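Tokens in:
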């Protein structure tokens, strides 16, 4: 399969590309990618014509491009506008271009931050996305667009990712926008209950499953390394994709605020 990773030059995208290349012809399209080749393409995700031209040479697409306004940037009008252009408008352009070029599958990298309190308290089954900060809100809007545009000729899957990390950092995580001087952390709820970040192998497996998904034209799926379900009660990944994380956190959570190391994987 020829796969275009839109915005795939970052830490997470690079790890994903390396894994997908074991079985697919993968092109990374990103502003940080110099030149044009079968593997790397200079691509502005907000340029509809450029995206359409890139998709004309692909069978499937994974949309990873994102602007993540955090802290004071979440109140910066320019950053909010940029988040809307990249996180929403470029997704819409990608979906229309995919239909025009005959691309049958698009995977949209969303986030569990569509839930306002994700990562602070456990999200209960059936919860409705309610984020209002720019990042989570723009991902919610993009999911709405994906649902509206998907159809029998275009299957779209929003993967709601939680703390995607690298081999070296797992089960901890560091914000992609932070430098190496920032210490990685193991995700934990406000009550101190720990849960693992998403291992890149598990992320790649989820993307692979989404690229081959049958069934409804659109699905939104929670993809997390939290194998014990302490952060969210959601089994859509198993039900829709037949996927679950195989890299298990090297501890057993025994009570809020307590974790026992086991160094166990399955």
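Residues out:
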């Amino acid at each position: 399969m020829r796969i275009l990773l839109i915005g795939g030059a970052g830490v997470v995208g690079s790890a994903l590309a390396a894994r997908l290349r074991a079985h697919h012809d993968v092109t990374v399209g990103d502003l940080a990618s110099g030149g044009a080749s079968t593997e790397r393409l200079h691509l502005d995700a907000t340029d509809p014509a450029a995206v359409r031209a890139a998709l004309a040479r692909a069978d499937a697409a994974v949309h990873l491009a994102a602007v993540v306004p955090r802290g004071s940037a979440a109140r910066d009008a320019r950053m909010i506008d940029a988040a809307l252009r990249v996180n929403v408008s470029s997704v819409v352009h990608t979906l229309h271009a995919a239909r025009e070029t005959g691309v049958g599958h698009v995977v949209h990298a969303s986030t569990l931050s569509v839930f306002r309190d994700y990562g602070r308290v456990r999200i209960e089954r059936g919860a409705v996305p309610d984020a209002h900060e720019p990042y989570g809100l723009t991902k919610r809007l993009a999911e709405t667009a994906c649902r509206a545009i998907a159809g029998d000729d275009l299957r779209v899957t929003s993967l709601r990712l939680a703390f995607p990390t690298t081999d070296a950092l797992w089960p901890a995580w560091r914000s992609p926008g932070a430098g190496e001087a920032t210490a990685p952390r193991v995700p934990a709820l406000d009550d101190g209950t720990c849960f693992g970040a998403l291992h890149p192998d598990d992320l790649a497996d989820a993307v692979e499953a989404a690229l081959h998904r049958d069934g409804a034209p659109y699905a939104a799926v929670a993809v997390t390394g939290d194998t014990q379900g302490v952060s969210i009660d959601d089994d859509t990944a198993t039900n829709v994709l037949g996927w679950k994380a195989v890299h298990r956190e090297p501890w057993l959570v025994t009570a809020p605020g307590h974790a026992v190391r086991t160094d166990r994987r399955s």
